[in-house]
Amino acid sequence: FLFPAAMSxxxxxxxxxxxxxxxxxxxxxxxxxxxxxxxxxTEVFKQxxxxxxxxxxxxxxxxxxxxKTENGSTVAxxxxxxxxxxxxxNVLNTDEGFSSSKRKLLDRLERFKKMTVIxxxxxxxxxxxxxxxxxxxxxxxxxxxxxxxxxNAAKKNKRFKVIVTESRRDQAGVRMVKxxxxxxxxxxxxxxxxxxHYLAQEVxxxxxxxxxxxENGGIVNKIGTYQIAIIxxxxxxxxxxxxxxxxxxxxxxxxxxxxxxxxxxxPLATDNLPASTEVWNSSSDYTPPQYIRxxxxxxxxxxxxxxxxxxxxxxxxx
Length: 318
Hints:
Layout: H1 18-26, H2 33-47, H3 53-70, H4 75-92, H5 98-126, E1 135-140, H6 144-155, E2 160-165, H7 172-182, E3 187-190, H8 195-199, E4 205-208, E5 212-213, E6 219-222, H9 225-234, E7 239-242, E8 284-287, E9 294-297, E10 300-302, H10 306-313
Parallel strand pairs: 1-2, 1-4, 2-3, 4-7, 7-9
Antiparallel strand pairs: 5-6, 6-8, 9-10
Helix pairs in contact: 1-2, 1-3, 2-3, 2-4, 2-5, 3-4, 5-6
């Protein structure tokens, strides 16, 4: 998922649907896609003149479909939309009455907007004892939570270096390297196809974020995460996931085919390919729980098997 540097003139057009305008407004380098979705749909909910739960459901589902279509149906956006609509319905379908439930929900949503940075700091604090001096950490994709972890470790004067994968399709690794360089953290940039070569000897642990944490403790994340987890497992290197608990979801994929079809949104260098060649260029993959050592979340340090219990315990992510 790509974050625009600034809203263009087209993005500021008032004739665009409210959900699209607000999503673009809230999409910035300090937000992930799910946060932008939550904030955009919050604005839709806030400005809604609906007087019944069913009307709210219809309006939010319509706005959610617009966001999914506008942004190429990435897993993070699709999951964020479904999570938001589902939680809103859970709160509104109570015996408190529509008006009372709506006020309570809006209060929770406002608190959630203020909590996102605090959540990342909580997650970072949970990882302190796992990052030791002279560690080499491999990261894949761009994750604000992983950045918070590395920033926190650097502030504690821990000595470590980070190996960053190129993270194709969108070269998110380039952006990650720039952020780490700004923090003064020693960084090495490698191509995606070199992961096994360096994991074998150079790497002590792997940290990745997640677009979605599923019920069995596995994750959906940027394409390439699955193969890195398999390689780390084969070399007995810990594969850690850092994720906010609000992206936990009751999805239970059994394999890669159970993921939503996200199409081929990003181009490959295909100029020299025969016209008859089919290009597969998925945006995300599913990493099963057996390859994940631990998940660092705002609810604490969890084993993959504890995710299901956390979903049962939790009623709302706000």
